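ok so dumb question maybe but i'm new to this and my supervisor (M.) told me to 'just get the structure for DNA mismatch repair protein MutS' and walked off. so i did the thing. is this what she meant?? sequence i used:
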Amino acid sequence: MSTTPMMAQYLEIKAAHPGALLFYRMGDFYEMFFDDAVNAAAALDIALTKRGKHDGDDIPMCGVPVHSAEGYLLTLIRKGFRVAVCEQMESPAEAKKRGSKSVVKRDVVRLVTPGTLIEESLLEARRHNFLAAVAEVRDKCALAWVDISTGAFHVMALDLAQLGPELARLAPSELVVADTKEEVLRPISEDFGIPVTTLGLAAFDSAAGMGRLCDLFRVATLDAYGSFDRAEVGAMGALVEYLEITQKGNLPLLRPPLQETQSKTVQIDAATRRNLELTAGLSGGRAGSLLETVDKTVTAAGARLLERRLSSPSRVLETVSNRIDAVSFCVSDQDFCQSVRTALRSVPDMDRALSRLSLDRGGPRDLTALRAGLTQAQTLAGLTQTEFPTLLTGAFGDLTGHDALIDQLAADLVAEPLLLVRDGGFIASGCDAELDEARKLRDEGRSVIAQLQQDYAKTTAVQSLKIKYNNVLGYFIEVTATHADKMMSVPLSETFIHRQTTANQVRFTTVDLSSLETRILNAGSQAIEIEKRHYERLKGLVLDAAPQISQTSRALAEIDLTTGLAHLAVTENWCKPTLDTSRTFDIAGGRHPVVERALRQQGGDPFIANDCVLNAEDTAAIWLLTGPNMAGKSTFLRQNALITILAQTGSFVPATHAHIGLVSQIFSRVGASDDLARGRSTFMVEMVETAAILNQADDRALVILDEIGRGTATYDGLSIAWATLEHLHDVNKSRALFATHYHEMTALAAKLDGVENATVTVKEWEGEVIFLHEVRRGAADRSYGVQVAQLAGLPSAVIARARVVLDALESGEREGGATQKTLIDDLPLFSATPAPAPAKLKPSPALELLEAIHPDDLSPRDALDLIYKLKDAAKD
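this is what came out, is it supposed to look like this??
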């Protein structure tokens, strides 16, 4: 069967976008056909039907309503699909002008991919949605990333080996790579669950990229923004090329690229981020993370800034000091801080509103959001004080300069407009006389006609004159036949034009009535068109001021983050840290912020604070931490790393005192996990992560290691842990916390100058162990593993047998010379020793009495007597 013109159009458009589901606009629906329909119906759990035939077979079809398409788009994107949105480029009426069988013109207006979302309903307000690209030019590599929903644009030169840690930091939604590099880069990206998109190698050409970037920012050269190498230009140019493809040439409003360097931020690898749960908990969401615990921001932009800062703490002393001084100022003036936070609560997400407007996907509410945000910025500017620290002085100075734009938006827009431009009603009355008249005709057409009827009745002196309407004649003037001659006499006949005579009435029209009819019928669409013109005018004013608005938005985010951290410091009783360029690490009364919050929410015991001192200028400074399981060693390790991150983020910290020499890197090897998909056991993952630490850590790093070597045989594990500690001390010379159950290693404290023993204390009481969670200098002599196993609920027979084995092994060690083989033979561990039988329960007198009773034979009196007997029997 021949293909219909509409289906031919569909197939042609689909052929141009083979890698995407095609949302083909059909009136109020987006429809999908063939394999797209089959795949979409399964992914969206919607009905799969059919429409017509192609080559003799039924054509599968499914569809989603246009008004609710965003929700379906989000589902498809999360399931790994890309969607090409195909819109009608003309109305059916316009198509018919070319012929009755002409197909409405359609074309793809955008490709929806994970990294190019801007719709409010498709994004998390408090998180960035980065699109990244990596480029290699000869021996150099660069990573560029952009968030088109906010305009943020960054680039960084790096080694390919550093790509994984940076992807872990940024967590982009999509990575663009050259098709020739896909084989190498896809495994790295997929380690972090980031979908990969390929472009031809030409898209990464630095010369072409330079041209695209200069055109985008309307400059002759990028020198004003920094000195970029060819790899950086190639990565940025590829991003712009990809945006031109997906947005069909309608590029978003991007800020000039910001060049980042790894030397200015603390380096944190992917394993450490995961172990410390910086921005995501073990479940993958924010719950249980450091970010969730410390986020007291009240604006979306402030929350995104906090996540960026936590993900990449600064190692520039001046930057960190300015941030901490700003927080300290707000801590000292809580009235000011709370006034600012109250005003900030009314600040909308101006960055994303700007982005939607720049891509023609915005609406009236984006304009009013910007009006509200700039108005609140103006209000906050009035809170400026003369003694502001440097950071706040700059931020508050960027809040003003929008008076004319605010006044224009306030005068022209209603308070609460509808969502879409096509809905109208967003331009305020009095802004445009023509619009007001069109609205009056649209809304008050009957009263206008009634007034005209009254005027005509007075002019003709025919009080029975009526203006009526029908679908054939439209509006007309009707009088009875007795007045017809009067209406057709000169001079009235020059005004009133005869149209129709019936048995009892005569109908007329006038030029004014015909004109009014046309205006009434077109008033609705005319009003919309006038409002659209005003929308475009106001949007133009906003986009012209976009750089200044973005600057104000960044200032508001900075103020929000600063006051949020101040509020956190006051409510949680955190202290102001001292930072310098030494190698000091002195924490007094340190606490784990996430664990402390969880204990408080559960109404449990208070968190036990602990000190940590790792001070050494020329040598390593390592605490070798021993003690039982469940005593809190891992918590102690993590809390000191988190305190460091918070301090270099620019925050107060959960401690009574903190003096930290700037840390360059943070490494963590805590917790057990495997990677079976890549053939890695738990021990193999542990060794890979440990190798990365020993190969990269420098003398400014902070390293926390927990239970190195536990996944293999005892002597293997001990030897690996021993050698690792020596390497950290002799080669890396890092500040480190090293937790272990190998008590033999405590002897290293006497051998290595930079190693000091510490232990987590416990107390034994009547055969049970009580965890005190206190860290003190010294070494533990045992791990209390059997006691912990008992707390976990192992059967009593297992616990008893474990004690026998443990006593035999420990006595063998004390006596010396007893080999493991001898100990095993002597126990004997593998003899057929039966497990202790469960103790036989003593017969219960009450149960014996009950067994002798026949309930049907009991009288009420007998039953009462029985209760007393049972009570006496229970006492026995």
